[in-house]
Amino acid sequence: MHPSFPSSLEESLLTPRLCSACSDSEKADPASESHNDIPGEEEAVKEEEDKKEEENDSGMWDETFKTHTDSKPNGPSSVGLDFSLPGFEHVYGIPEHADNLRLRTTENTDPYRLYNLDVFQYELYNTMALYGAVPLLLAHNIQRTLGIFWLNAAETWVDISSNTAGKTLFGKMLQYMQGGGETPQTDVRWMSESGIIDVFLLLGPSPSDVFKQYASLTGTQALPPYFSLGYHQCRWNYNDEEDVRNVDAGFDEHDLPYDVIWLDIEHADGKRYFTWDPNKFPTPKNMLTGIKEKRRKMVAIVDPHIKVDSSYRIHSEIRSRNFYIKTKDGNDYEGWCWPGSAAYPDFTNPDMRTWWSSMFSYDQYEGSMDNLFVWNDMNEPSVFNGPEVTMHKDAVHWGGWEHRDVHNLYGLYVHRATAEGLIHRSGGKERPFVLTRAFFAGSQRYGAVWTGDNAAEWDHLKISIPMCLSLGLAGISFCGADVGGFFKNPEPELLLRWYQAGAYQPFFRAHAHLDTPRREPWLHGETNTNLIRDVLRERYALLPYWYTLFYNAHRDAEPVMRPLWVEFPTDVSTFAMDDQYMLGSGLLIHPVTEANAREVQIYLPGAGEVWYDVHNYQSYKAPQKFYLPVTMSSVPVYQRGGSIIPRKDRPRRSSDCMQADPFTLYVALDLQGNAQGELFLDDGHTFNYQQNEFVYRKFSYSQGQLTSR
Ligand code: NOJ
């Protein structure tokens, strides 16, 4: 039994249901008594049996974890199902885990756990649960890609085994040649603590078919406002209005582009979200106006734990409307979080969501303006004094659902209500930007996700790639990791390498813990600042390409950042690669993620294809593996022959300042001398594209001529 596995769950999955009624009747069976005809021994056996039964029962009808008791008013329950995938050796998905892209077999570890948790200093290369959960698993081989979507929001575990695990390629070939090779097979066991079995098999056969099939069930990535693809500057905390002004000015002094400055929890008055600290942020509108004049934006945090304080309007309104989650006894559920004692709005209640959305109106959220956007954190939900730092499973939601049943959905509903609030405040015109930490299947419809509290360590930089790739496979394209690492203090080399990697990940935000020294990009010497400037400018130059990729994600469910095998589905050597990846179908990125790196090993896939180093246009015939020498300025990026990439090459202060700038098309010919590309363009912030107010150009180069339609 897995140590952290709820005993009742595994018992009831793996053995026929035990219940006190049937064990009583077994005991009454005279046949079973006949074995125990020696007096004294009979009692001992009975005692032993009772003890065993007690052990079996412990955790079934109520369960104690540290000081918390789960009352399980509905008794023990679980659902589970096994799937066998003959012919498949590579499985992916089921984010969020800090693990490689290709899922491991879990015969010798805990299964992958899906249970949204606020994990302090999470471990890497591990199947433990993190902040979000998408119960979608993909399997891929050279003939087919398929998906299993297990639609269940309760605590879920995924156990993976395979008949080829641990065998080398050589071993497998030998086995095959000796005629003893069985078909490779992966077995996947899904187990959820409550709910029903509601499972969708997505049969592909191509990767893009699976993405579309999954999107037909859960929706596609929301089209982000253009600015949100620029660079975001965050830390916990920018202290006051003057601090904000200085940091903003620092970017101009050092000629660094950026789009958004962020405010963490200290900006609010005593962590009462929707308010401003009267001493540190006395004139939020002046501050926001200053930012707006620079054609930039701000994001402020709004968490879902509400300070229990009768003089706080948000709290008293939620209480009077009876919108808080309840304890099993029917009182408002209270826990401990940033503001101290806090209660938790029931976002599963549609009326609660509508009310919450209305709080983002300019007349409700005082001091807010149209260039203020929102960050939802701690929405697993995080309850500092709850079991595993989250909510008790026997808490009760709208409609009588136990928290147990909807736990993994809570964060999605917070995100949704907030995104709808931003749409609502603009009268339905403007596209929202909301970042969330907790998520579930479908969260892509409401905005961006980040990978939570990572650390300033090289391995954390490295794992940001597979973590975002797994999210992308599960429909959530708008993903990023805290650049620089949240905990600890990155040395200048790590910080630079993180900027270089982050510039090629969809959500690009630097963030740092309250206790860390300042690390704005100009604080580590001129050389570092210059190198960070180079990569920020590259990010901005490629914004038209990023935006077009997001449009394709929005329209056709194509992941923006994709594993190599999605583009090269028959190249087995790419199936486990996660140190390099594709941005769309045109760019291959291999960030440097090692300290003191002198070289990196690059693999350029695609028989009969050609690639170009974007920095010097050197061409490489594929497939090819080679060591590329690197210096501190190296960010290995290759453009695929046959692609056309639109860029805007004039450096500016922010993305908004680039609006009227000319495009440059980078045409990289394939070996036949042809290339194709595309460009999506609209106003960058409204829903008007849904009324056909956009341009979607397809470019084509052949026989020496570039055409567009
Ligand atoms: C936890 C979040 O993960 C982190 O990014 C944030 O800075 C702190 N909460 C404080 O709000």
Automatic annotation (TrEMBL):
The UniProt record lists the keyword Cell cycle: no
Any GO BP: carbohydrate metabolic process
Residue ranges, annotated region (Disordered): 20-77
Primary localisation category: endoplasmic reticulum
Catalytic reactions on record: N(4)-(alpha-D-Glc-(1->3)-alpha-D-Man-(1->2)-alpha-D-Man-(1->2)-alpha-D-Man-(1->3)-[alpha-D-Man-(1->2)-alpha-D-Man-(1->3)-[alpha-D-Man-(1->2)-alpha-D-Man-(1->6)]-alpha-D-Man-(1->6)]-beta-D-Man-(1->4)-beta-D-GlcNAc-(1->4)-beta-D-GlcNAc)-L-asparaginyl-[protein] + H2O = N(4)-(alpha-D-Man-(1->2)-alpha-D-Man-(1->2)-alpha-D-Man-(1->3)-[alpha-D-Man-(1->2)-alpha-D-Man-(1->3)-[alpha-D-Man-(1->2)-alpha-D-Man-(1->6)]-alpha-D-Man-(1->6)]-beta-D-Man-(1->4)-beta-D-GlcNAc-(1->4)-beta-D-GlcNAc)-L-asparaginyl-[protein] (N-glucan mannose isomer 9A1,2,3B1,2,3) + beta-D-glucose; N(4)-(alpha-D-Glc-(1->3)-alpha-D-Glc-(1->3)-alpha-D-Man-(1->2)-alpha-D-Man-(1->2)-alpha-D-Man-(1->3)-[alpha-D-Man-(1->2)-alpha-D-Man-(1->3)-[alpha-D-Man-(1->2)-alpha-D-Man-(1->6)]-alpha-D-Man-(1->6)]-beta-D-Man-(1->4)-beta-D-GlcNAc-(1->4)-beta-D-GlcNAc)-L-asparaginyl-[protein] + H2O = N(4)-(alpha-D-Glc-(1->3)-alpha-D-Man-(1->2)-alpha-D-Man-(1->2)-alpha-D-Man-(1->3)-[alpha-D-Man-(1->2)-alpha-D-Man-(1->3)-[alpha-D-Man-(1->2)-alpha-D-Man-(1->6)]-alpha-D-Man-(1->6)]-beta-D-Man-(1->4)-beta-D-GlcNAc-(1->4)-beta-D-GlcNAc)-L-asparaginyl-[protein] + beta-D-glucose
Basic and acidic residues biased stretches: 24-38
Compartments where located: Endoplasmic reticulum; Golgi apparatus
Glycosyl hydrolase family 31 C-terminal domain location: 558-645
Source organism superkingdom: Eukaryota
Ranges annotated as biased composition (Acidic residues): 39-57
Glycoside hydrolase family 31 N-terminal domain residues: 61-159
An example molecular function term from Gene Ontology annotations: carbohydrate binding
Keywords from the named record: Endoplasmic reticulum, Glycoprotein, Glycosidase, Golgi apparatus, Hydrolase, Signal
GO cellular component: glucosidase II complex; Golgi apparatus
SUPFAM superfamilies assigned to the protein according to its UniProt record, in alphabetical order: (Trans)glycosidases, Galactose mutarotase-like, Glycosyl hydrolase domain
Pathway(s) annotated for this protein in UniProt: Glycan metabolism; N-glycan metabolism
Stretches assigned to the Glycoside hydrolase family 31 TIM barrel domain: 222-549
Sequence similarity: Belongs to the glycosyl hydrolase 31 family.
Name this protein carries in UniProt: Neutral alpha-glucosidase AB
Organism: Pyxicephalus adspersus (African bullfrog)
